[in-house]
Amino acid sequence: MSSTVGRRRFGSVVDIYMARKKLRNGKEFGFVRFTNVEDARGLEKELNGVWIGLFKLRVFPAWEKEAHTKGTKGHVEKRHESI
């Protein structure tokens, strides 16, 4: 399934997960995974604030796996190796 917002195509949706439980503030949440996205910032801007029925989308880009190590405090560190 491809994702089209407005007249722009942003890639293909490959996975959707909607959680059964809610956040501490009572809001529902879920995750959507895309593939072949050329403009991630554009996708984020276009989807943020879109209403689907009674639900308003809030978009938060995924963290890189390395950022979930202890002590990173929310920033993403990328390691560069020289050859």
Write the SSE topology:
Blueprint: E1 2-5, E2 8-18, E3 30-35, H1 40-47, E4 51-52, E5 55-56
Antiparallel strand pairs: 1-2, 2-3, 4-5
Query: What is the structural class?
Result: mainly beta
How far is the N terminus from the C terminus? 39 Å
- CATH architecture field: 2-Layer Sandwich
Count of helical segments?
1
Q: Which CATH C-level class is it?
A: Alpha Beta
What is the total domain count?
Answer: 1
Please state the CA-atom Rg, rounded to the nearest Å. Answer: 16 Å
Beta strand %: 25-35%
The overall average pLDDT, rounded, is: 75
CATH topology: Alpha-Beta Plaits
Strand order of the largest sheet: 1-2-3
Order of helices and strands: EEEHEE
Report the uncertain regions: 72-83
How would the global form be characterised? globular
Q: Quick one: how many beta strands?
A: 5
